[in-house]
């Protein structure tokens, strides 16, 4: 598979990527736990079928110490006992926030309240921003058909 567009060679695409990468730094520098951030990126990417994001975020999470068991169970987190209540709340919000076009009605009050019980206001802002951001990356990569498989942890900083 070959990418339809080179984000780094095209000036418009490169400029856009720089802006959203800056937005991503706001989230990564927040107090939202890095483990939660990794799980959110992986789950949204699974839902959206973004191979390049899955390649990147599973490898980065493993490099940061995430276990193979937890990585393998993200897609079935509801039935898995290896996630904390806070992680489960973040995964529920991620799923509902990612599937808004599926007619599910967006994020339910129940899911929002569950997340609110585990995260402070700044962390919630980071969580919502991260769900929006990873969905943006997923769509960019899916539309441009960016190939996956050759990512090395830390490649993008």
UniProtKB/TrEMBL annotation:
Superkingdom of the organism of origin: Bacteria
InterPro entries per UniProt: AhpD-like, AhpD_core, CMD-like
Leader sequence segment: none
Any one GO MF annotation of this record: peroxiredoxin activity
Keywords for this protein: Oxidoreductase, Peroxidase
Pfam families cross-referenced by the UniProt entry: CMD
Boundaries of every Carboxymuconolactone decarboxylase-like domain copy: 17-96
Protein name in the entry: AhpD family alkylhydroperoxidase
Native organism: Pseudonocardia hierapolitana
Lineage, top ranks: Bacteria, Bacillati, Actinomycetota, Actinomycetes, Pseudonocardiales
């Amino acid at each position: 598979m070959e990418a339809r567009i080179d984000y780094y060679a095209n000036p418009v695409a490169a400029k856009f990527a720089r802006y959203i990468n800056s937005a991503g730094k706001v989230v990564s520098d927040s107090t939202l736990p890095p483990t939660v951030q990794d799980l959110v990126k992986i789950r949204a990417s699974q839902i959206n079928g973004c191979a390049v994001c899955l390649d990147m975020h599973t490898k980065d999470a493993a490099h940061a110490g995430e276990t193979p068991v937890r990585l393998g169970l993200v897609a079935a987190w509801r039935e898995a006992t290896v996630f904390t209540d806070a992680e489960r709340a973040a995964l529920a919000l991620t799923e509902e926030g990612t599937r808004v076009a599926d007619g599910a009605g967006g994020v339910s009050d129940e899911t929002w309240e569950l997340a609110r019980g585990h995260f402070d206001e700044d962390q919630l802002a980071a969580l919502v921003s991260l769900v929006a951001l990873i969905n943006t990356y997923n769509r960019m990569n899916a539309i441009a058909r960016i190939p996956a498989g050759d990512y090395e942890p830390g490649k993008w900083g």
